[in-house]
Amino acid sequence: MNTETQLRGQRVVLAFSGGLDTSFCVAWLTQDQGAEVITVCVDTGGFDEQALAAIEARALELGAVAHHTIDARAQVFDSFVAYVVKGGVLRGGVYPVSVAAERTAQTEAVVKVAIASGASAVAHGSTGAGNDQIRFDVALATLAPDLAIVAPVRELGWSRDQEAAWLAKHSVPQPADDVAYSRNAGLVGATIGGVETHDSWFMPPESVYTLTAEAKSDSEAEELTVGFHAGVPVTLDGRAVDGHELLAELNARAGAHGFGRGIHVGDTILGVKGRIAFEAPGSLLLVKARGELAKLVQTRWQAHWNRQLGDFWGEQLHQGLFYDPAMRDAEALLDSANALVTGEAKLLLHHGHADVVGVRSPHSLLGGQDVLYGEEMGAWTGAEAAGFARLHGLQSVIAASRGRGDDGSVGGLRSADKIAAENEQEDVTREAGA
Fold first, then answer.
1. Whole-structure pTM value
2. Superfamily for 3-176?
3. Residues 184-369, CATH architecture
4. Which residues in 186-339 belong to E strands, given as ranges?
5. Per-residue pLDDT tens for 33-43?
């Protein structure tokens, strides 16, 4: 498309992080395309105040006419982390979908600024190769269908080296990006990409990790207690803490023990395999703690559908389909299934591990009706248990009887009589040989 014809003199709102890609977007849109650019940096937990101030200064230096910094940490926790925890959402059994959550929250903030400022277009710095372009585009089309979507890096098809060369040619100062590794950090966790993650055999070096310390066997263990209400963490060591602040504290405390690192291999939205390293100490700890507490409270079928809907919710979020109505349906079931997941989980942090060493809840199903598993029975008699066992396996017994072979086998398995006869024959053969 002829971007210049469409954008000259138009107001464009750009999702801005201060890195190479979005820095290029500001300079190219203003200098080459003649657009009026407003930048928006959405803090999802990956920046401190000094970094946010530097990002604003850089945006204005590059030519933005205005800059907005939006604190979305509470929204990220309430809309995304809460359901990652309630649903036990771990893609591939390991990864808590951190980037997808952040991109969705960032898009919402950018749209609000675009509408308020009367912009005609929104822009992002995604390439044409990854998941983020899909997440941005789908969310933007859903939330603001009348706004044009501009993705300069994708439209040009340029590499990072080409972007850097263009900035140098136009005397535009470049950010000090680490070209060897790409890193996205936020409240939910941090993802890391580099040469090692492109090969399924190798791990990135220790130097790329910033949220988690190297696990050491001589470090002193630490115990902490997380309190939950309806599946959502609300207290830490007995202190009431806002969700996003609680998660930030857990990132620091669990990360200091080396807990929370991982490697995830999965299917990208575009259909190819992708591999990332990640750090998510707080999120992984909360998923683990709630999971153990839920085992104490939920019935087996609540737990079953909690897992199914949690997996579905996480997959849809990853795919950029957060606004599909089915997601609200899934959240309604997760809310209901977690309604009584209230209580405390006690954890021990040590040597790269976070072990749940105790859980308690006023809604516990353990030991109810004078029953101690494997020891005492108060809710039934021995005769009732024997009758249940007979009825429980009755269909299997009937099915086995119709498929019994001439040699006494059932479904390919030898009968007890057949095994006894074979053992007796082996004993006779041994004695004869002796």
1. 0.89
2. HUPs (3.40.50.620)
3. Alpha-Beta Complex (3.90)
4. 190-194, 222-229, 232-236, 239-240, 261-267, 273-279
5. 999 999 999 99
